User: Fold this.
Amino acid sequence: MEKQKLPNSTLILVFGILSILTCCCYGIIGMILGIIAIVLANKATALYAENPELYSGFSNVKTGKILAIIGVVLGSIYLIATIYFYVTIGFEGIQEMQKQWMEQMQNQ
Assistant:
């Protein structure tokens, strides 16, 4: 009997990659994609554990889950840092820092 591709294995891998790439969008998008990928990976892992000889593509699931975990961690760190800067410096302070950076870039 021919092996079937594990459901959502490619989607899990794509969401894992996208969670890392979008973790700098205030952390929110990367965390959402990462959490979705982790949930789908857990379902696919349970399905694979029942009948491993029926399915192929489990390496995509494992890789996607690892990437999703990294994306969730990076997104969380970025979100915490953003909240910290808004609480300590404030919106006006962040705008002032951006103006100074832009002036430094123009002077170089």
